[in-house]
Amino acid sequence: MRALKIWPGRPYPLGATWDGQGINFALFSENATSVELCLFDAPRAEAEVARIRLPETTAHVWHGYLPDLGPGQLYGYRVGGPFEPKAGHRFNPNKLLIDPYARALLGEVDWKARVFGYPLGDGGDPDLQFDELDSAWGVPLGVVIDRAFDWGDDRAPNTPWHRTVIYEAHVKGLTMRHPDVPDDVRGTYAGVANPSVIEHFKQLGITAVELLPVHSFLQDGFLLDKGLSNYWGYNTLNFFAPESRYAAASEPGCQVREFKEMVKSLHVAGIEVILDVVYNHTAEGNHLGPTLSFKGIDNAAHYRLVAGTERYYMDYTGTGNSLNVRHPQVLKLIMDSLRYWVTEMHVDGFRFDLASTLARELHEVDRLSAFFDIIHQDPILSRVKLIAEPWDVGEGGYQVGNFPELWTEWNGKYRDALRSFWKGDERRAGEVASRLMGSSDLYSSDGRHPYASINFVVAHDGFTLRDLVSYNDKHNDANGEGNRDGESHNLSWNCGAEGDTDDAAIDALRAQQQRNFLAALIFSQGVPMICGGDELGRTQGGNNNAYCQDNEISWTDWNLDDDRRALLHFTRELVALRMAHPVLHRRKFFQGRRIRGSDVKDLTWLDPNGAEMSDEQWGTPSTRAFGVRMAGDLINELDDRGDRVQGDSLMLLLNAWQEHVPFVIPSAGDEPERWETLLDTAHPEQDRAARGYDSGAEYPLEGRSLVLLRLVETS
What we know:
Layout: E1 15-18, E2 22-28, E3 34-40, E4 50-53, E5 56-58, E6 61-67, E7 74-80, E8 83-84, E9 89-90, E10 105-106, E11 141-143, E12 166-169, H1 171-175, H2 189-192, H3 195-204, E13 208-211, H4 221-224, H5 254-268, E14 272-277, H6 294-302, H7 328-343, E15 349-352, H8 370-377, E16 385-388, E17 407-410, H9 412-423, H10 429-436, H11 440-443, E18 453-455, H12 465-468, H13 503-523, E19 527-531, H14 562-580, E20 603-606, H15 615-618, E21 625-630, E22 650-655, E23 661-664, E24 673-680, E25 692-694, E26 698-701, E27 705-714
Parallel strand pairs: 12-13, 12-19, 13-14, 14-15, 15-16, 16-17, 17-18, 18-19
Antiparallel strand pairs: 1-2, 2-6, 3-4, 3-7, 5-6, 7-11, 8-9, 10-11, 20-21, 21-22, 22-27, 23-26, 24-25, 24-27
Helix pairs in contact: 9-10, 13-14
């Protein structure tokens, strides 16, 4: 081994920091008795070329400085301390450990290596036994990076929430089959930044790309044994390092530069980058999981352990463990990671996976937890987009509508209501009406706005939109679990033609249902989120849990036939209509009352006779058709420059029943009006220029259709 002189160094910043002359190393461990820095010349080496004990400890941070080392240096740690699993301590210096603050990783976990802190195959209580074999050759190594990058005049788009349209995408799956993306960059950060992909985003009209996890993640051994892989990436190894599998180049640390180049390119196009982040658990699993990083550095500090039986882990996520957000250092770790991605990587926001777990101070979900308090006060993070997945698998974890100010939420109630309504279920009209107008029942009482609701019909974890309207049952056989995995309830959406065996008729109705879902989504108050590929009619063959399918089941197919191309054009039209009409993306909730002395309400709900809906009608089981008039000239809002917002008045008609409904066009007060059709999901390509309707006329509202009309004139 090389003999290197080490200086005391500094306890901050944590991680490995190159200052132009050497590298400062700093690692937190509250319960360790020793920390050794291990240097490597190549990945998968059986032994390090140097092992140096960090000489100083300051406030539980072990640190040291090595001069004459620079970017590209590979490293890991060995941490000594008590091996007392029953007391929550699992130190084992035979196991090489990943620095939680490493900015890049090189290599992957090799499950043939002894990466478990206990000997395998001994039976009984194996995790109580101490394993003496080394794991260095099978553990990813940290890479010291050069932080310098030419951001030029990069500027965050800062799209207001009410004008935001989100596109959820997977870095690899987005471009693996894209014909205009060069083969050598398909499935990478560079692929996302390809001009043809960015042009697709711009023509579609989306304003933000929400990327599935890009933090370095673990490939689970049980999946690899079955020839599968962790495709989605919800199994984090490190909260700072971008996933190296998504880099086109291969040199150590290149993924950091490529990620920054991707963000810079998207920003030039005015598109924000939102990251799906997983701070609720790590890849080390439960007491039988591997020792790769946190578990060996300081298990008792980093994880929520069961009080009185600290051998075991609290599991609010269904993955084996939960991070101990109550510990100041763990909270600091999360905050440092978030700030890093904003300040160094220039991302514009985050979607927090199973966010309720982060709010658990003791057991109950606490909306005033330390995590929320510190983000609310943070001068950097309080200004970016914050999206919660407002549930976890623990008791009391479903918290839709209960997150505090600054936060938006994936609105699961919106998803469920819209699916049930277009399926044709009874007694859904009232809730759907609320969801279409921004879910004021969930978000208005605490001063939040319609854009607190992130509206979606499908997301990555379920059917694609096309599959939702095509399959009554899941088809997950390729996952190797006997089709037992994935959601099993409420799958029959009854979207095929009733009693019809005509394949063409069934296909036509399924296509129409896709248009219905997309139109309702895009025209709803709140923030629409399109699941990547739904605008192209993407299918997973009925697989509603494709988390392990890194193949054509999950990858977006860009080879479009006429029907899928028509759906793409239709979706573009929807987004363009939303952006062109302020009444479709209000900052504030409708009040349902007359404003500024007008005889017209800002919002009026209508029955098919053109009369205002009554409470009795909302409660009628058979109510499946209704309309809403939105007065655009009465928007009581100011735009970003302080000017009064003006816009057209629009009327939305919905019919979830299979039969045609003659819908009477209403009038506002005593004045007759004339309306023109902007969009009809039953006739997506029909010329609408001459399709005007006067008050009192009947609009032929087709079965299972949605119509958008614009007020042309008032006599």
